[in-house]
Design goal:
The chain is mainly alpha-helical. The chain has 5 helices and no strands.
């Protein structure tokens, strides 16, 4: 990898998600700052627990705020 090329992680989102993201992540660099640690935690969960972790994450009844450590911490802090 050259110093000019930076890895990217991209996927499609809905128009509604794009609209919300533009409002919520107005400050430059905020998306990377927010999603990089979450991505690391999700990958850690999959490495440690296999694809059962993916099944739990994709289950519509699962509250990601409860199982992803940084989201669970953020929710606790906001509620207190």
């Amino acid at each position: 990898m050259t110093s000019e090329t930076k890895p990217r992680f991209s996927f499609e989102i809905s128009e509604e998600q794009q609209f919300r993201a533009l409002k919520v992540f107005e400050q430059y660099g905020m998306r990377k700052a927010v999603f990089s640690p979450i991505l690391d935690e999700v990958m850690d969960m999959i490495e440690e627990n296999g694809y059962l972790a993916v099944a739990v994450l994709l289950d519509k009844t699962t509250s990601l705020r409860k199982i992803i450590p940084s989201l669970a911490k953020a929710e606790r802090m906001v509620k207190n």
